[in-house]
Amino acid sequence: MTGSPKTALVLGGTGRTGSLVAKTLAERGLSARTAARHGATVLFDWDDPTTHAAALAGVDRLYLVTPVLRVTYADQVAAFLDLAEAAGVRHVTYLSTYRADQAPPEVDVRAVEADLAARAAITHSILRPAWVMQNFSDAHVPVVDGVITVPAGGGREAFVDAADIAAVAVETLLAPDAHAGAQYAPTGAQALTVDEVADTIAAVTGRPVTHHDIDPDVWIDGAVTAGLVPADYAVMLRWLTGSVISGNGSTPNDDVEKVTGRRAATFHDFARRSVQAWTSPMAG
Questions:
Q1: Short-list 82, 80, 70, 129, CA closest to 259
Q2: Contact at 8 Å (CB) between 161 and 188?
Q3: Most C-beta atoms within 10 A of its C-beta, which of 35, 86, 141, 171?
Q4: How far does Cα 145 stand from its chain's mean position?
Q5: Is the pLDDT of residue 17 over 80?
Q6: CA distances from 183 to 108, 125, 186, 244, 272 (A)
Q7: Is the pLDDT score of 283 beyond 70?
Q8: Mean pLDDT of the chain
Q9: How far apart are CA 173 and CA 192, in angstroms?
């Protein structure tokens, strides 16, 4: 990509990876515009198309984060990509899901990948990260009263630091031509059981932490009943947890190092950096 403008639009710009992508792009000298419903540079709402054109004005590359906690969104994303292409966007880096090619057919993650691959006027890079380490330090899979409650069945997952996902995304956005058509699967340095995650958190906090390996249906039904996720999102949770339980969780690779030049963080690195999430007065 040559010429101007050189501005990246970062969807989910206040989120776990988007905020880091925008910050690092700016530090590396590329104009970055964050977009979200609250607290970003520009207002962006997937369900309000009137916010889309203004967000895209003057943008030539895009960090694409699809609507969260949904399984059906391909048509919305396609319409937005049509608008982005017409506005001058020439590269998209898409935050997809680990082994997206194995996702249930009712989940649109594969459809978005296929849409991007079919667009001749736009290059793309696809990120398929493992489960994010930050799940354990925020409200996704929190430590509550010293217990992590999530179905895992003793399976392993190469949990990845959101900072490493963002670092890979940054490289693809800074040098789109070098990463055109690439698929990267950022993972952490080790494949861990959730029991081992609990042990690591216990070690850095000095507090007992255990893993309650709950029945998957009970866990998913509880999340839906509590209103934490929509009912149709159960299929996504069942697939994600089922992959780990069946032994098909993510396995470590060198994609982070290959793209960024530095090794992926270990969970211990992350836990030491995040200790306040589990020890502050507000922690569960």
A1: 129
A2: yes
A3: 35
A4: 27
A5: yes
A6: 17, 6, 10, 21, 30
A7: no
A8: 96
A9: 30
Rounded (5°) CA angle 185-189-193: 95
- pLDDT in the model for residue 269: 96
Distance CA 57, CA 5 (A): 10
Measure the CA–CA gap between 174 and 29, rounded to whole angstroms. 9
pLDDT in tens, 75-115: 999 999 999 999 999 999 999 999 999 999 999 999 999 99
- Confidence (pTM): 0.96
Tell me if 122 sits within 8 A of 92, measured CB to CB. Answer: yes
Greatest C-alpha distance within the chain: 56
Measured CA distances, 207 to 147, 148, 179 (Å): 11, 13, 43
Taking residues 162-190, report their average pLDDT.
98
Nearest residue to 158 (alpha-carbon basis) of 278, 243, 238, 100? 243
Residue 162's identity, in one-letter code, is: A
Closest CA to 69 of 53, 47, 102: 47
DSSP state of 142: -
120 DSSP 8-state letter:
T
DSSP-derived pairing of the beta strands 147-149 and 143-144: antiparallel
Residue 5 has pLDDT above 60, yes or no: no
The conformation of residue 219, written as its DSSP 8-state character, comes to H
DSSP string, 93-145: EEE--TTGGGS-TTSTHHHHHHHHHT-TT-EEEEE----BGGGGTSSSS-EET
- DSSP strands (E only) in 143-226: 143-144, 147-149, 183-184, 210-212
Non-local (6+) Cβ contacts of 173 within 8 A are 8, 21, 25, 30, 61, 63, 91, 93
Token code pair at residue 60? 């030539």
Confidence of residue 156 (pLDDT cuts 50, 70, 90): very high
| Spatial separation of the C-alpha atoms in residues 117 and 125, rounded to whole Å | 9
Q: Is the peptide bond before 230 cis (omega within 30 degrees of 0)?
A: no
Average the pLDDT over 215-228 and give the result: 96
